[in-house]
Amino acid sequence: MKKSKPMTRSENMARVKNKNTQPEVYLRKLLWHRGFRYRLNYKSLPGSPDIYIPKYKVAIFVNGCFWHMHENCRYASIPKNNHDFWKNKLEGNVQRDKQNYIRLESMGINVIVVWGCEIKQMMKDKIIEKEKTDNLANHILSTPKFK
After folding, report:
1. Domain limits of the chain?
2. What is the spatial distance between Cα 71 and Cα 20, in angstroms, rounded to a whole number?
3. Could you tell me if 49 and 42 are in contact, meaning their C-beta atoms sit under 8 angstroms apart?
4. What is the 3-class SS of 20-66, one letter each residue?
5. How do residues 38-89 score in pLDDT, each as one tens digit?
6. 21 burial class (0-12, 13-18, 19+ CB within 10 angstroms)?
């Protein structure tokens, strides 16, 4: 494996997007084709959910496994370089997520977290895609509507 320059990690991290990621766009297209209409990155709500479906009061977060420390996931690991910084940063993300989810639920909004690795798997396995999309759609539809 080729050894990288010290600036490479910084440059790579600077390129990471937080909106319109490939998994997020993929999930949005699946939901749109199922007839769900939504708002994107809804800033009026805590945590600015990636997808907010007002009709069902459902907030969907598409979480990257690395940035949100997905438990028991091969994509979620703390870098060895500058370990303390990354540990604090990533644990802070997880704490902030939990607080946002609690605030949303106290507002009567159902929170759904979809992990990046799950969407990557759906993108690979087209057969499972319909089953997972059906499960997500059923979960959204089973939430009580609030006027």
Report:
1. 17-124
2. 24
3. yes
4. CCHHHHHHHHHHHHCCCCCEECCCCCCCCCCEEEHHHCEEEEEECCC
5. 999 999 999 999 999 999 999 999 999 999 999 999 888 888 888 999 999 9
6. middle
pTM of the full structure: 0.80
State how far the alpha carbon of 93 is from the alpha carbons of 29, 30, 34, 43, in Å. 27, 27, 31, 17
pLDDT, tens only, 103-144:
999 999 999 999 988 888 888 776 556 677 777 787 777 765
Q: Which amino acid is located at 2 in the chain?
A: K
Strand 58-63, strand 51-53: pairing: antiparallel
Token pair 């007839």 in the structure block, residue = 35
Q: How far apart are CA 101 and CA 60, in angstroms?
A: 10
- What pLDDT score does 129 carry? 61
CATH of domain 17-124: 3.40.960.10
